Amino acid sequence: MALGLFQDPAPQSAIGPDGHPNISTFIPGIEGYVRMWAGGRVKFLEPLKVGLDAARESSIIRVTEKEGRSGRLVFVTVHHEFYQQGTLCISEEQDIVYRPPAAVKSQVEPFEETFDWVDTIEPTPALLFRYSAVTFNAHRIHYDWPYATGEESYPDLVVQGPLIATLMIRAFTAANPGRRPTYLSYRGCAPDRRAALQGIGKA
């Protein structure tokens, strides 16, 4: 969730054709695989304060392989801890999946349950591009429509998983003034723009 902090820019020579850093440098055997954000969990322990130095400790805590409908899937869980003045403020786990290139089918299903509140966001190309810029994410599926639909076979531009999580937190705080979220768990179900809108509704 604090993706705007502690970016580690990769030189252009280390960027793959999809816009992401070359993944073979730390996970051998998945050259040519495409990267997707699968979900995450965030604990909000203390607020990060503007003007104070911060530190992040990161580690890969789990790598698992599964067989899906598109073939072999490699799931990587990364753990981040954000500190200020020696105090742990945010603890976050990010789930990332690497899959072979294959056509992606949209599987958006209507929700049957009711909600206490709903927030609707239109994920325009400009919004997706600006969020990618803030998070230093050059993955082309978020802003390059010909690449997303032609090369990686998505039905549309793909909304960033962290953006969905950010909008969910924003919707919660707007609907519950005076309350501070302490925990968020989210999971990507269908990688397209319509799925993101419904995901926000479920927050």
Automatic annotation (TrEMBL):
SUPFAM superfamilies: Thioesterase/thiol ester dehydrase-isomerase. It comes from the Bacteria. InterPro entries: HotDog_dom_sf, Mitochondrial_HTD2. PANTHER family: HYDROXYACYL-THIOESTER DEHYDRATASE TYPE 2, MITOCHONDRIAL. This is N-terminal of MaoC-like dehydratase domain-containing protein. It comes from Marinobacterium aestuariivivens.
